[in-house]
Specification:
Blueprint: H1 2-32, H2 37-66, H3 71-190
Organism: Catagonus wagneri (Chacoan peccary)
GO molecular function, one term: SNAP receptor activity
Domain Sec20 C-terminal: 100-190
């Protein structure tokens, strides 16, 4: 029975060391991760799984230590369990740091997306302003063109009004000359002695 417990203790210790190394490697991968958020989240999940396995093995080792017959072996194993728990606490802090890093990265990516949307909206607004300015300039040019046409029309109307006045005056003078001529002819024919 004691030999079986020793084997179980050695296996637990080996697995604890194995999980410890795997957690260290995953934490280093998280530090080195420059990829997308999904890769960082996947690494974070793996770290959590390894921590669960590590906790389970430490609990098994603690249970084996409590079942030891010799008090000296029991104390040595309990001391090992305490050492593993302390190391796990330091790694839990690293896991927390990795989780915080993941959260911060996610927040920064969200901010980056929002800023990108704002820039795009600003570009669209700028394009709309440019198009509006172009339309206003075109309308202004058309107004200037119409203004020139209206000025020309005003000059022509003024000229025609003067021409009409001149024509009326000429017609009046021509009519007066005609009447004077008719009167002269009538006078010479009717009153030749005058």
């Amino acid at each position: 029975m004691a030999a079986l417990q020793d084997v179980h203790v050695r296996i637990c210790n080996q697995e604890i060391v194995k999980f410890d190394l795997e957690v260290k490697a995953l934490i280093q991968d998280i530090r080195d991760c420059a990829g997308p958020l999904s890769a960082l989240t996947e690494l974070n999940t793996k770290v959590k799984e390894k921590f669960q396995q590590l906790r389970h093995r430490i609990q098994e080792l603690e249970q084996s230590a409590k079942e030891q017959d010799k008090e000296s072996e029991k104390q040595i194993l309990l001391q090992e369990v305490e050492n593993h728990k302390k190391q796990m606490l330091r790694k839990t802090a690293k896991e927390s740091l990795a989780q915080t890093s993941s959260t911060i990265t996610e927040s920064l990516m969200g901010i980056s997306r929002m800023m990108s949307q704002q820039v795009q909206q600003s570009e669209e607004a700028m394009q709309t302003l440019v198009n509006s300015s172009r339309t206003i300039l075109d309308a202004n040019e058309e107004f200037k063109s119409m203004s020139g046409t209206i000025q020309l029309g005003r000059k022509l109307i003024t000229k025609y009004n003067r021409r009409e006045l001149t024509d009326k005056l000429l017609i009046f003078l021509a009519l007066a000359l005609f009447l004077a001529t008719v009167l002269y002819i009538v006078k010479k024919r009717l009153f030749p002695f005058l």
